[in-house]
Amino acid sequence: MSRFAVLLFAAVAWGQAPKEYTIEVVANGMRFADGPVWSLEDFLLFSDTVTDKQHKFIPGKGVSEIGSHTGGTAGNAYDEKGSLYTCEFRERRITRTAKNGKVDVIAARFEGKRLNAPNDVVVRRDGNVYFTDPAFGNQEDTRELDFYGVFRVTTRGQTEAIAKWKTRPNGLALSPNGRTLYVSDSDGQSIHSFDLDRAGVASNERVVVSKIAGVPAGLRTDEMGNIYVAAKDVLVYSPQGELVRTIRIGETPSNLAFGDPDFSTLFVTARTSVYRIRLGVKGAVPYSP
Description:
Blueprint: E1 4-9, E2 19-27, E3 33-38, E4 44-48, E5 53-58, E6 62-68, E7 76-78, E8 84-88, E9 93-97, E10 103-107, E11 109-110, E12 113-114, E13 120-123, E14 129-133, E15 148-153, E16 159-165, E17 169-174, E18 180-185, E19 190-196, E20 202-209, E21 219-221, E22 227-230, E23 234-237, E24 243-247, E25 255-259, E26 265-270, E27 273-278
Antiparallel strand pairs: 1-2, 2-27, 3-4, 4-5, 5-6, 7-8, 8-9, 9-10, 11-12, 13-14, 14-15, 15-16, 17-18, 18-19, 19-20, 21-22, 22-23, 23-24, 25-26, 26-27
């Protein structure tokens, strides 16, 4: 694949005329790239889930390996303090790594049973942590829970189930104001949303997008509340659930993250590679910049 590709797609969500966007390949050779997140220290962190390694991309410098998790590494998120939250799907837990390197397990069991295989995680400004717990492939063979969960870890460290599904949740994202949680349903090919109150308690589950082309996985939102979905392509929906843009990159996307110092670039992990797309719209910031 060439290092650069140019695609044409209409910017109907922003009321702009059609515009060409450059799609840059910033990393390749991965086995299954996932879990991208932009660091407060101005680099993109992402996982290679097959090799259990984490990598970082620094604009102008390239990609380097920064560590490995024998427990597996999938979704990642940062909090306001710069602590890194990682879904260790092989060890079936969520860990938090502080900037000084101290690692804490913040979730591993629910009602005495081991989690299935945590997949994606987000952290709200107030410290509430939300994560999905599906089970794919041979992960099904060792399940202890009889459901696929969407969970919350409270600011006091308690793990609560906010949804118990028979279908598998995958990616998740917060609205710009942190009052709505979006969750992709890979089996149901839909996006669900929950209202979050000031304490972080979820309620009013509903479907906001249905009949998605492909298997919906990672999610992100921009500053205007539009929802970005990694599915067959990168699909962009309005907050009302209307499809407003399709971005094709040549590989099936797995996850997404906004980044670059101005937070106006969309990074896309897509199996073997990581792509960078300048969109000219800022992502929703889950923590204070």
